[in-house]
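Hi V.,

You were right to ask for the full record rather than a summary. Here it is.
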Amino acid sequence: MTDEGLVLVKIWMHISSDEQLKRFKSREKDQLKRWKLTAEDWRNREQRPAYELAISEMLDRTDTSYAPWTVVEANDKLYARVKVLETVNAAIERGLLKAGIELSGLDQES
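Predicted structure:
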C-alpha cells in the first residue's frame, strides 16, 4: 500500500498504570463519564502486565521503515493530542513531497 503512495501512520498512545487508575477513579465519580467505565475495564486492568508484554511484542514485530510506529506518551491529554496532530501532519507532508507535490507554494503559516 505504501508503495502505491498511501500515507500510513501508526500511533500507539501510552498511559502509565498510575494515570490509568487516576482516570478510572475520576470516571467512577463523574455521572457524565461513568458509562465509559465497565467491570471489564477493571478486569482487564488486572491483566495490564500481560497486555504490556503483548504491546511491546506487537510494536517490535510490526515496526518497519515504511510503516513505523510512533509511541506517544499520553498521560497529558493535551500533549498527546498535539503530538498526534504533528505526527500525522509530518507524515502527510512527507507523502506529498514523495508524490512530487510542492509545499512551498502553500501558506504554511495560516
